[in-house]
Amino acid sequence: MKNRWYATPIIALMLASGAAAQNETTVEAAKPEPTLVGAPTINAQYSDENIAAVAKMLTGTWISAQPITEIDGEGESKIVLTVSPARVQGLTDVLYCETARADSVATPYRQSFFQIYRFKGNLRLRTFDVRSENAANALTGASLVPGMFPTTITAADVFPTIDIDLQKDGQGYKGSSPAAYPDHRGGAVQMTSSIAFDGETISITDVGYDSEGNTAWEVGRDGGAEFVRTEDLVDIDYYDDQLVVLHFAEPEGEPIQEGDWMVIHYLGRLTDGTKFDSSFDRGEPFRYKYPGTLIPGWIRGTEGMTKGSRRRFIIPAALGYGDRAVGPIPPGSTLVFDVECVFIEKEEAPADLNAAPAEPAAGAESGG
């Protein structure tokens, strides 16, 4: 017997509402097909040219030149930093940084901010961590699509963690923390940090010290953990109707076809970080016959998925529920879905009832 996955109440609600949206797409059919466009241009403003130069050198996608050992010593992997201009109400000259394993860029394990500011006339780099889970949810992936950075983030959502005094060093900058800062990881009670960067590489050294002043852990033991600038690691499709699809994993395989059954895990949230539904939380994926009668943005986002595909859809209200309120989703909401295709189940071909009867086997006696 094949496994069967069933729709839960919120998904049933989505399907019902999606049916109305699907009817609307019939009217939309006469309009030109949506086309791919370039990523939106980010016009970041900074307080002075030196701050702008530092920000430009740090902005981009970076990957560690070598695998980095985790602080707990349980494993190591290459690490990816994605740094982009950011808008935080109450702060100026800010960048947003996501830190993730190279094999899991969709789920950063650290989300932080860099602020470049002046202290006694000299440049400083200050790091901030994110204070609340909701803010962290709203920010997830914002370094990859900075043009859609959430407008709800304020200075109250972050807290400062460490300062680094910067000084010019050839074509780049280098610096270290002016004092040790509290820390609790790996048996440490305090830590120091230093950085050097020139627009093509970033070198970071962090050291944690125990209560006796001995090194408890160290990142970048031999001259700093080096990161090199790299091309974007995530393919992103921007459409002229504001739909955005991020492709995190696209394994080879037969893509989903009309009439197939799609088994999918998903998490849905609003742009302010509010989670409105998650099959992951229920521990049970959702199964439906493709393409279904869900909202147009979902149908478009799932096109061409194969088993194991992982994507993120950013769906504007016009391709979602429009001006309607649907359960916990307010009218006019942009929706963000993280989606993973668990399985594609082919529809069994029905027997051909009009087929001619089989010829009797040679030597068989005819009835009569």
Describe the structure in your own words:
This protein is mainly beta and 368 residues long. The chain has five helices and 22 strands. It has a ten-stranded antiparallel beta barrel with strand order 2-5-6-7-8-9-10-12-13-15. Strand 16 and strand 17 (244-249) form a beta hairpin.
List keywords for this structure.
368 residues; Chitinase A, domain 3; Lipocalin; 2 domains; 5 helices; disordered N terminus; disordered C terminus
Share of residues in helices: 10-25%
**Individual helix count:** 5
Low-confidence stretches: 1-13, 15-29, 349-368
Number of β-strand runs? 22
Determine the structural class based on helices, strands and strand pairing. mainly beta
CATH class of the largest domain: Mainly Beta
Distance from first to last alpha carbon = 40 Å
Average predicted confidence as pLDDT: 85
From the alpha-carbon coordinates, what is the Rg to the nearest angstrom?
26 Å
Tertiary shape? globular
How would the blueprint of this fold be written?
Layout: H1 9-28, E1 36-37, H2 49-58, E2 60-64, E3 68-69, E4 76-77, E5 79-85, E6 94-101, E7 110-119, E8 122-130, H3 133-139, E9 158-169, E10 172-176, E11 181-182, E12 190-197, E13 201-209, E14 215-219, E15 225-230, E16 235-239, E17 244-249, E18 261-270, E19 275-278, H4 279-282, E20 286-289, H5 296-301, E21 310-315, E22 335-345
Antiparallel strand pairs: 1-16, 2-5, 2-15, 3-4, 5-6, 6-7, 7-8, 8-9, 9-10, 10-12, 11-12, 12-13, 13-14, 13-15, 16-17, 17-21, 18-19, 18-20, 18-22, 21-22
